[in-house]
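Researcher: Please translate sequence to structure tokens.
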Amino acid sequence: MFDEFQPASSYRQAAVAIHQVSYVMGEILDSQYMNTVSVQGYLDRTSEYLSALGDVVDIWEIGNEINGEWLGKNVDVVAKMSGAYDIAKSQGRTAALTLYYNQDCWSNPSNEMFTWAQSNIPDRMKRGLDYVLVSYYEEDCNKLNPDWNAVFAKLSAMFPNSKLGFGEVGTSNALTKAAYLQRYYALKPPVANYVGGYFWWYFREDMVPYTQPLWSTLNNAIASTP
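Model: Translation complete:
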């Protein structure tokens, strides 16, 4: 996650080091800060980051929790998302989009994940996105445990050429972290283009250094994933 108001150059050293041992996905800007920049500012940021880090970032998340109700004016959100996608694709980059799962926990029904995606994601993106990911936090959504098989089957129909998975999961409840992590990392919806992902949001707090107990929980969960 590239922090707000930070130049791309500040991440160069870390991105190079991580890329030597891992693939890297870079988030242009967290959804919380999407409404702090103009459309042109977001596109400029996209161009800056791709130029500075394009050789060490493998996947570019061109929009984070893009249907969230806190991102600002919808017309601007769509312009930022589609503009960043076009910049990435014009350079031959791999593009990911993260949706926010919000069944029965939205204020505006137009922001429901599938409704928003159907209405606001252009056809070229529905056909051309490399990855479509889901961000979900049960404690933000009435502790709902969705039917993920049905969710990903519907996403697969909407994005037939995209790899699908989770872009963020996690909980701040210390008592349920291990069980939550094990539950989500074990999910494998029966769609051919499902790739997992998961991306535990609290990794730095929960698993650094690796001597923390949850690091072993995560390691075991990944090791047991088919």
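Researcher: Any highlights?
Model: The first strand starts at residue 25 and ends at 27.
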